[in-house]
Amino acid sequence: MKGFYAKNGEQSVNKLSVRYSEQELIKEAFSFYEKGNYGKAKEILSSAINADKNNSFAIGFLAIVEKASGNLSNASRLFLKSLSIDPDQPDLLHNFSSILFTTDPEEAIRLSSKAVELSPDNSSYLARNGYFRLMIG
Fold first, then answer.
1. pTM of the model
2. How far apart are CA 57 and CA 15, in angstroms?
């Protein structure tokens, strides 16, 4: 994890153990993601996850990056892991539903409906949920 450790006298201190530093890393990952540098975003998020294996936000964000990279199998695995830690993440439910729709439309609608239930004013969630329902009749 080159770059994420600092020398403190003779002891190496993991900066990710401090919540603020972890948040800064996630902001940095988001910056790379926005620029389309998915590889660097994945590297940073993986470091955050290594520091906290139950960091649902970082795992979910990594799932979104994997989806954007076209790695749908890995994205699905990460979505499931993140949602198993915290099932009430509307953005992840929304994103995961789009992957599932081709293979399991009923589960996709269930996840999409839950996203709408959690964030009823989000027009993207509402539109996707309506589209899914329209497509299956």
1. 0.81
2. 18
